[in-house]
Structure formats: structure tokens, C-alpha cells
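Dear colleague,

As promised, here are the two records you asked about, laid out in our usual form so they can be pasted straight into your sheet.

NAME FIELD: protein one
SEQUENCE, THEN STRUCTURE:
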Amino acid sequence: MKKTRVFYCVLIVLTTLAYAQSSMPDEMISLVRVAEKTDSTLYWDGMRGAGVLEKNGHHVSFSAFSEYILFDYHIMKKCEAVKKTNGTFYANNSFLSIVKNFFDSVPPETHYRIGAILIDAGHGGKDPGAVSNHIINGKKVTIHEKDLALTVAKKLHAMLLSIYPDKKIILTRESDIFLSLSERTEQANTVEIADNEAILFVSIHANSAFNKTAKGFEVWYLSPGYRRQVVSLPKADKELEPILNSMMEEEFTTESILIAKYINDGLEKQIGSMMPSRGIKEEEWFVCKHANMPSVLVEMGFISNAEEAALLIDDGYLRKISLGIYNGLTAFVTHFETSRGFTGIP
């Protein structure tokens, strides 16, 4: 039997999942032991009390707060929830039997992967976004957010295409045209991907403020408290829709936070010595609310700040920003495709 791998998605004490025979309740089994007996890999998030067992490309999702198990992210079955006793989470033998029967009954599946990345260059056409005027190197310069966003988006698009020729790398706009916010998210929501594929959405912007000293880059994700409909089931399965929708919402939120963290880290390595990081933040931006997938919004710096404006009109500097976002996205893709997505900090 292979050695069981356990990935911890947040900082938790190892002993909370250790197999402690002496304190185990009757007819209960630790989650680590379930993974060992099914020869699967356990991904566990102690903060959320939720986990995924993965084997041969198939996945069993479960939670300490739900009586449903989710198979391969679309089939549900009712089962007694895992329980916490003496600091350790346990399942019963019925849970073990259901998981084992599932893994034994399905053939190896194509690896779950990112099938598409949609890059949204903010504003465009009649909508210039933020506009700022500065004297740079003795010349008056007018900066439009829409131009910076498109330049970075196109550089990022080229970088991603070079490393992922087998994925759909899509720009919402390739020139100075106007697109409504709903047109942008509609593009994302209608991209065709395979059953074993997922899609990511990243929107690129530049910041502006009345306070001319405001500076730095930041990455935003959708507020976890915002509720949206990301799943639609046939009429016969409508009673399960709220449960599945809630699970998918949580998954998208976790993934979006992780994408934001990776991109913020990527930008910090590329431009952190010249522009400070303002960190990752949450907000209910339209494009994040209406893109039914993991999504983030990048603010690459303040054009209202004279010092940052001088940097943002430099093509080499914009390439560094593009590279920072690229490194963040590729780090997330690698993590996602390795773990099939029980995303978190391993």
C-alpha cells in the first residue's frame, strides 16, 4: 500500500488528523485511516471542516456540516456527516464503505485541469476608466486606464499562450473598444470547456484616488459573504441545487482567494521594490459577482500618483506587471491541476 499523502490547506495542528486508536469512538474511523484504506489522497481544510479524497482523477467531497457527499463535483449521496471528537475528525464505517465502493466502481478519469483563462482588460472605447495628467520628463502626459489595462492584458495573453498552447487563453477585448460589464462576464460564462476542465477569470485595472499620495498594487476577490447562483440543475434535482450551489460557491471563493494571493506574491517579486503591495482584499465587483468561476480583479497601481504614473507609462515596467500576474496564475494552475482543486495553501 502506498504512503498516504495529506495536504493541509490552512495552518492546522497535525495531531488533529492523526490516527489515535486509543481515543477513537466505537465504529468510527479517522479520515487519515479512510484515505489509507481506500488508497486515496486526502486534502483537508481544518478551518472549514471540509475535505476531498482523490484517487485516479476522481474526487469525493465532504464536510463536517453536511449530510451529503459529492462525487466528482456533480453526483450527491446522503451519508452521516463526519464528526469531531477530542480534536480529531472521524467518519463511520458506512462513509468508508460508500467511498471505497465509489473508487472501486469508476475507471481512472482524465486529470482535472484548467481548460481556459479569460483575461479582461478593463474599460475601453468610450469608457477611458481613470484619467490623469502629469508632467513627466518635462512633457505633459495624459494617462488613460483603458490603455494600460489593454497593454498588460495583451502581454499576459502572449505569455500564457506560449506556455499553455493546449488551453483557451481569451481576451475580452483586443483593441480599444467598449464592452459593458455584462458583456465581459457573458463571454466568460459561455466559454465551452470539457467536463474535466475549469475556467479562470482575471480583470486588469489601474487605480486612481483623490489623495495623490495613495500608491501600490492590490488584488481583489469576491466577498465570501456574497451569495450568488453558480449551479443550475434539472427540475428533478432542484431539491439538491441549494446544497450543490453552496459547495461550489465555497470552492470558487477558496480558489479566488488563492489566485489573489499567488498574483499578489508574483507582483511583489517583480515590482515590490518600486511599488508597495496593498495586499489582497474583498469586494463585490460586478465582474467577480457575475463570472460563474474563480475570479479576481487586479489594480496595478495609482495613475493619480505622479511617481507611479511615471512607472506605469514605461513599457518595460508594464511587462514586469504582466510577468507578475503570469507567475501568479501559473502557480495557481500548477497547484490546481496537482491537487484537483481542493485549493488552499498546501
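NAME FIELD: protein two
SEQUENCE, THEN STRUCTURE:
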Amino acid sequence: MKKLVLLQVMIVFCFQIIFAQNSARKPVPVIFDTDMGGDYDDVGAITVLHALADSGYANILATVASVKYEGVASVLDIFNTYFKRPGIPIGVPKGTALETKDWQHWTDTILAKYTYSVKSNKDVPDPVTIYRKILASQPDKSVTIVTVGFYTNLANLLKSKPDQYSPLTGKELIKRKVKQLVSMAGKYPSGREYNLFADSVSSKFVCRNWPARIVFDGFEIGEKIKTGLPLIRNEKIQNSPVRDVFSLCIPKAKEDEFGRMSWDEVAVLVAIKGYKPWFKVREGRIQVENSGNNSW
């Protein structure tokens, strides 16, 4: 039986994390699934992910988008290249998916400033292809998936049929290869949160049918943890797409005057380093309505 657990806050205010090199620790193999563009906490999340990989905690198997606005593949390539991992596989949906883009125009800004080799979404595969190929090649119960966007790709993976990469269905492949799914989605004990309601059909399907452990990182956690001010005030950091994005976006919203809320960064942290000592977990069951509203 799958286990669903909900993160609960123990320490909710500002914290600083120093990632020490630990060569003895086996890196966590992780696939990062993101709605990169709709909000810029995704930028913080991919930065934390690469920092954890630099410190030996994570092995980034792929970065896939759950949105399909033109340019999202290039945006992911900019960050992977900046962090010296240009070869990480990138996926963008080919079928029905949201085209959510940022109103602050940070994606356009970094696309105009930085170089990248992936020039179009057409140059990368569909995320389901990426998922199936990578999962089939990994040891059983080894892969952590962290999703900080919509459930579109995960629903499509669950529904996928046997192919050249694996004779297993998507659900069978997930059950065999995935250790856990860590998801920034929902508001607890009940509420309405964007990652769930934007593609509510996929959200409901995944929450009902996912055959492995799920850890939910709710809206109420990330809204209390602020990120970005020390970064944008550090003038020694130059030619950084991460600093550029936070510098551009933080001044545009009154709610960000103390830093951007950090929903997605929390999910990445917990996916790789676990929930202790920052949080505790509570086992239970999520209920997702047709509207995308949720309860625990």
C-alpha cells in the first residue's frame, strides 16, 4: 500500500543551509518536474537542486517541464548550463499542457542575456519519454521524483503503455523504480492551491492512482520561508541568471519585500536531505475534488 505523508512545520522562519562536501554519502537519483516560468521560486528550487548535486547529495537524472510555453526548454537549459551540467536531459510536453508564463518577464530577460544550446521546445522529447527511459535504467526503488508544478506529466506517465524502454506499464514502472514522490502541492488541512487546481484532472488521477510513497509540501510551509534578499544584495555575484531573476522580480511585488516565498525550494530540500530537523510528517490520505480543492 502506498504511503502518503504531509509535511508539518517545526521551524518555519528564515534559515540558512550550508551544504558541506560529503563524498561518502550516496547521491539521491532525482528527476525534477517543474512549471518553470509561472513563478520564480522554481528558479530557487533548481538552484538548491544543483547546489545539492555539487555537494554530493544529489544526482540529477533529468529536468522536465509540466508547461509548454515556447522557450521553457531553453530556460531549463540556461540553468543547467550555468551550473555546469549542460547534458542533463530536458523534456517538454508535446500534447495537452498549460502554457503558463511569468508576468514579470524574467524568462524573456534571461533568454535575451544568456547562451543556451537548446533552441526550441521541439528539440527535446516529451517528459513521458524521458521518465520511461530513465526509470527503466535505474535500480529498483531508487529514484526520487520531486514535482514543483502541475501533475500533467505524472498522470501521463501513469497511463503510459509498454515501449522500447520497458515492457512495464507506467504504473508498474513507477511501483518498481520510484522510491518516493515529493510534491509541492495543496494547502493543509484543506484549501485551494494552484499546482493542484490548474490541472485538476491530472491532480485527482495521480493522487488516486500513484503506487509509491508521496510526501506533500503544502502552501502553508513555503509562504513562511523567504528567499532572495541576501542574494540580490551581494554585488560580488555577477552574470548569474539566478541573481538576475530575483533582482528583477522581488521589487515588483509588495508581498516580496522580505524575500520570495519558498514553496518549491522546500520540496527540493526535503526530497534530497529528508524532512528532519526542519519538519515533521503526518500520515494520511489526500482528497482532491474535481475543482482541484483538497483536504487531508
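A couple of things worth noting about protein two: Residues 10-23 have pLDDT under 50 and may be disordered. The first strand starts at residue 4 and ends at 9.

Best,
R.
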